[in-house]
Amino acid sequence: MSLSRRTAARSARILGVTAASAALAFSAAGTALACEIGDFSAAAGCDGSKGVITVTDKDASGVPAVVTVFLENNGADLRQVGEQTVEGSKKGTTVTFAENWEPNAVYRIHIKAVKNEKVLVDADIAGNLTTPAEACKAEESSSPSASPSESESESGTPSESASTPADTESPSPSDSSGDSAAPSASNAPSPAAQESNLAETGASNTGLIAGIAAVLVVIGGGAVFFGLRRRGSDNR
């Protein structure tokens, strides 16, 4: 065999081995990324006082899968809880079903994934799902807190807003106005009192004025009399 034929044959064998290796690698990669039932898990929990069932899909290929949840009773489906479609991810994608489950209840979770008309998964999560032995607790409503005055009055301690004793109460506007009005009424004479005082003053002064006028009349008369008498004596 010539050198060129040997070289060509060796090159063909190398290419064949490389192609086979690549095919195996792609096949392994495709198998690793394929959706399978082991990518799914389920759990029962509480959202506040309500029960929920969550299903997580960790299929890194992101093949859409239909998740259906059934409530079981003695190995038979009692009712369908719900159905949702989930697209998995490497970190995990979760779908939630609202279900007020009872303690120790059993649920069957069925997964069906189809890609390019090829069924990749059509099975139940192994072992089904059994809920916890204790149901979700109802949230306790917080009672309104008592006001400081009510809490202190209940404990027997006077509240800060308690009214001051009666003897230390500051006078109200009406009381202060009444007290201030009383001295003004007693000190300032009323119009009737002023008139009566003027009347009494006029009555008491009238006699004095009359007496002084009478004395002046007598004095005047005497002066006139003595004046006339003196004039008569001078005429003689």
Topology:
Layout lengths: L2 H31 L6 E8 L2 E8 L6 E10 L2 E12 L5 E6 L7 E10 L2 E7 L4 E2 L17 H8 L17 H15 L3 H45 L1
Antiparallel strand pairs: 1-2, 2-5, 3-4, 3-6, 6-7, 6-8
Task: Pick out its properties.
42% helix, 236 residues, single chain, alpha+beta, Immunoglobulin-like
Main sheet makeup: 5 strands, antiparallel
CATH superfamily of the domain at 35-130: Immunoglobulins
Enumerate the spans where pLDDT stays under 50 for 5 or more consecutive residues: 25-32, 176-186
**Count of DSSP H/I helices:** 4
> Average pLDDT value?
75
Distance between the termini: 217 Å
Instruction: Classify the helix fraction into a percent range.
Output: 40-55%
> Which CATH top level class of the domain at 35-130 fits?
Mainly Beta
Outline type: rod-shaped
What is the string of helix and strand elements?
Answer: HEEEEEEEEHHH
Question: What Rg do the Cα atoms give?
Answer: 61 Å
Tell me how many strands there are.
8
Class derived from helix and strand content: alpha+beta
Q: What fraction of the residues are assigned to beta strands by DSSP?
A: 25-35%
What does this structure look like?
The protein is an alpha+beta fold and 236 residues long. Among the domains are: 35-130, Sandwich (Immunoglobulin-like); 188-236. Helices cover 42% and strands 27% of the residues. The chain contains 4 helices and 8 strands; from the N terminus they run αββββββββααα. The strands form 2 sheets. Strands 3, 4, 6, 7 and 8 form a 5-stranded antiparallel sheet that branches. The chain has a 3-stranded antiparallel sheet with strand order 1-2-5, with no helix packed on it. The longest helix is centred in the last third of the chain and has 45 residues, at 191-235.
